């Protein structure tokens, strides 16, 4: 490869900048020309390329968000949009594309590769951790810590007022953030889409807790939970336990921001490097991920179709330790 482009797309995640920095600097090291693309796939369509050198990515390793900006491009979902994007890549002589993002980003990259043969490589950047082929996605660790700190604060006030809190965390259809932040904050119950929950089980846990003298509780709920959303859960709980003083907190987009954790910076640096080296070695239509501390390449198709299993031990441990 001689000229590559790099973009960040979909929901941003802490560590995307660190990954961008690693891509640009690795390219620079191996004398590969590197262009940043603004606003995800929209930048490819709108010819919004920015030549990047080692200094273009100074002071960003510690910054949340993405300096390239991100978007979920509707136009790139159309054949016309992708044709425009490809024409712009050809005009500039781009022979490799690094796409940092989640499953939507990878779906776009895969189609683009299959339609035009342009070499693409993915780097998993999403707080949801819902990508197969990597133990962790970039931004997940930071988001987990943000959620944990927020829930710790909620615990302070919950304890002071003997309250029950239902806390919704992000994760789209996946429960990784909920399960791990719930375990780390001592939640009474953790409701995630990967397991079948019931109001009866939740109420049983409340009753058991009451018997042990527990006066306040936190229930962590994944946004993708199928049983009910946090407001409905609070409502139903109030009907069964009228004496409970119940509050709801939705953590929302604060989980996507903030300076990346050390683990995310290291992961992003390794995968950014791994992506460029992968392109140099002829890899394409794959994602660079981290498995057991090694960079591995997984076909994008598998990365988006398969799912990492939720750790059953964590579920059991959280139940045993909760009460
Ligand atoms: O994929 C990251 C994520 O933050 C999910 O956890 C959440 O469901 C979604 O993006 C929110 O998307 P938006 O920023 O478009 O509201």
Description:
With 323 residues, the chain is of the alpha/beta class. 43% of the residues lie in helices and 18% in strands. The chain has eleven helices and eleven strands. It has helices at 16-29, 41-45, 79-92, 103-116, 140-161, 176-184, 199-211, 230-240, 262-280, 300-305, 312-322, and strands at 3-8, 33-37, 49-51, 96-101, 120-124, 163-169, 189-191, 217-222, 245-250, 286-291, 294-299. A seven-stranded mixed β-sheet has the order 3-2-1-4-5-10-11, sandwiched between helices. β4, α4 and β5 (120-124) form a beta-alpha-beta unit. The longest helix has 22 residues, at 140-161. 6-O-phosphono-beta-D-fructofuranose is lined by residues 11, 102, 126-128, 170-172, 223, 256.
Radius of gyration: 22 Å
Strand content: 15-25%
Task: Count every helix, treating DSSP H or I runs of 4 or more residues as helices.
Answer: 11
Would you list the SSEs in sequence order as H and E?
A: EHEHEHEHEHEHEHEHEHEEHH
Low-confidence stretches: none
Shape: elongated
Small molecules held by this entry: 6-O-phosphono-beta-D-fructofuranose
Number of strands: 11
Mean pLDDT: 97
Overall helicity: 40-55%
Q: Biggest sheet, strands in spatial order?
A: 3-2-1-4-5-10-11
- First and last CA, distance: 57 Å
SS-based class: alpha/beta
Quaternary structure classification: single chain
Instruction: Please summarize the sheet with the most strands.
Output: 7 strands, mixed
């Amino acid at each position: 490869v001689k000229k590559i482009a790099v973009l960040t797309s979909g929901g941003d995640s802490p560590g995307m900048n660190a990954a961008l920095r690693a891509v640009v600097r690795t390219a620079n090291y191996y004398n590969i020309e590197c262009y940043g693309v603004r606003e995800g796939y929209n930048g490819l369509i709108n010819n919004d390329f920015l030549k990047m050198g080692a200094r273009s990515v100074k002071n960003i390793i510690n910054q949340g968000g993405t300096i390239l900006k991100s978007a979920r491009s509707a136009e790139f979902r159309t054949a016309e949009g992708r044709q425009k994007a490809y024409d712009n890549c050809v005009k500039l002589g781009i022979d490799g594309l690094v796409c940092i993002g989640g499953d939507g980003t990878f779906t776009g990259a895969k189609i683009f590769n299959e339609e035009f043969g342009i070499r693409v490589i993915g780097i998993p950047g999403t707080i949801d951790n819902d990508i197969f082929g990597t133990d962790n996605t970039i931004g997940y660790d930071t988001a987990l810590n943000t959620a944990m700190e927020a829930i710790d604060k909620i615990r302070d006030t919950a304890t002071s007022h003997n309250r029950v809190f239902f806390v919704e965390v992000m994760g789209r259809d996946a429960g990784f953030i909920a399960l791990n932040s719930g375990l780390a904050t001592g939640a009474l119950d953790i409701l995630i889409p990967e397991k079948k929950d019931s109001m009866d089980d939740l109420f049983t846990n409340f009753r058991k807790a009451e018997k042990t003298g527990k006066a306040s509780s936190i229930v962590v709920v994944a946004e993708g939970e199928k049983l009910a959303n946090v407001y409905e859960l609070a409502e139903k709980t109030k009907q069964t336990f009228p004496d409970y003083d119940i509050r709801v907190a939705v953590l929302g987009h604060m989980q996507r921001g903030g300076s990346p954790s050390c683990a995310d910076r290291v992961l992003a640096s390794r995968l950014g490097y791994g992506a460029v080296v992968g392109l140099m070695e002829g890899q394409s239509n794959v994602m660079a991920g981290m498995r057991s501390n090694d960079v591995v390449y997984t076909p994008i198709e598998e990365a988006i179709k398969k799912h990492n299993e939720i750790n059953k031990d964590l579920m059991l441990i959280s139940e045993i330790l909760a009460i």
